[in-house]
Amino acid sequence: MYRKITAGTAKSPKTARRIAIAFEEDLGRKRHDAIAAGDRDAFRRGLQTPGFKGESGDIAITDTLIILGVGSRERIGTQPARRAGARLQAFLDRAGINAVVFTQRGDCDSLPVESLAGSLAEGVALANWRLEGYDGTHAKARPEHARLRLDAERSASRDGIKRGLALAEAVNLTRTIATTPPNVCHPTWVAKQARRLARESGLTCKVIDAKKAEAMGMGGITNVGKASEIPPCLVQLEWKPPKVAKAAKGRHLVLVGKTITYDTGGLSLKISNGMKGMKYDMCGGATVLGAMKAIADAKLPVRVTGLLPAAENMVADDAYRPDDIITMYDGTTVEVTNTDAEGRLVLADALAYACDKLKPTEIVDLATLTGGVVVALGNFCAGMWCEHDRFRGAIECAATGADEKVWQMPVWDVHRDFMRSPVADILNSNPKRLAHPIQGAAFLSYFVDPEIPWAHLDIAGVANVESDPVTGAGSTGWGVRLLDTLVRGMAT
Question: Is the pTM of this model over 0.85?
Fold first, then answer.
């Protein structure tokens, strides 16, 4: 592991190892004119290494060159490049190499040089991450290196490396927040991390504490969190750029992330080890934190506000119950049928607050909301609900550009009617399991003004996984790249 990974400045140290990119197609060629003349002999020898096929992450070594496979030139993309970067990090870590420089290659037109270099650097930094601060007296010794410096001969590649490392830093913040154990990561701690991020990245931070939330009528946040010794809160982070892009004049994007720092299920208790891993129930909020860091650090010229409704869903004698009727921020009454459908309650207050106080022109919420979306879509993509054609198209384009797939699902009037209660306005969960992942979106739709373009992303299947070739097991930081790409698109 490297303590720090930095981008070079065109003056590589003498100890820097040279890295040449290889495509699968290179193995069948006799000439390699795209490679600098001084590297061609070493490149040719490296391609002859037994077992080297040029696949993403393949590595061959000569006396003067490290050759890194990135897959087929015809199918090269940012995700294979991130995988190659992750494999490269493991190799450099084992070898103790502290500086590398990517050589110039003249035929990367299928993927812009800046994107390729950025994704490679991002993969290196994502693979280098681990949660720190919890090693005890019996922890296994791990070799650590002070610093890795990534450089490139092309200025465009160097710019790509800088952007890739900055984006990885934001994604890794999300992974750190999401992975921190719940005896540390609770609503008050989340608010502290938000204030710290605001100081470091030039954001404005406001925290609505439990008493104020109750006074404001936020029945969702206060009821979900009232059984915990750690009070709930609503965290608000705002990025106001010094200058707004012409395309973004008058626009205000609001990001809302479900931040249930631990979910026992409440009185509808999770059983049969179903509670294990529920620290990840705040991945939506962690993603919003990471995205706000990426947006502010890059100084993107778009106004963006992030909301994190934070609560612990615990069990106590004053916990909210099935059959309770609670009143939300906007006056909507909700019959509680299942206290394990708590995320939509805190999100609903945040969405209604956003519409009332922040006057957004677009809203995206992200939540590990339903097990049903995992059954439907697995960990291959997130579920998306968005009835506004233009905004849905923008999110789909951003998702494609970020390699974070989404799949459109419906929320129709019949789904909204399905959430009606006989004793209150709506149910928080219909006891019938029909259209389970859609129920969450249908419930939330009651709290967003119809004229505001709104997208709900259910990230339960993608926010944390058992294994991933780049991030490994646990939190993936899914959504940070998508939101960063979306905001960049709004500025153009």
Answer: yes
CATH number of 5-148: 3.40.220.10
270 is catalytic: yes
Task: List the one residue out of 296, 344, 306, 332 whose CA is nearest residue 207.
Answer: 306
Catalytic position from the list 154, 303, 344, 488: 344
**Cβ pair 123, 174 in contact under 8 A:** no
Q: Which residues contact 51 (CB under 8 A, 6 or more apart)?
A: 58
Phi, psi values for residue 214, rounded to 5°: -65, -40
Taking only the tens place, the pLDDT of each residue in 345-370 is: 999 999 999 999 999 999 999 999 99
372's tokens:
């049903």
What does CATH list as the number for 170-490?
3.40.630.10
Residue 178 has what DSSP assignment? H
pLDDT tens string 39-98: 999 999 999 999 999 999 999 999 999 999 999 888 888 999 999 999 999 999 999 999
147 is catalytic: no
Q: What is the model's pLDDT at position 142? A: 82
Q: CA dist 23 to 30, 81, 274, 332, Å?
A: 14, 11, 44, 58
Cα–Cα nearest to 97, from 173, 188, 13: 13
Rounded Cα distance between 83 and 255, Å, is 28
- Tokens 């450089």 sit on residue: 151
According to DSSP, the residues that pair with 307 across neighbouring strands are 236, 256
Of 270, 392, 405, 416, the active-site residue reads 270
Tokens standing for 458?
């259910």
**Domain boundaries along the sequence of the chain:** 5-148, 170-490
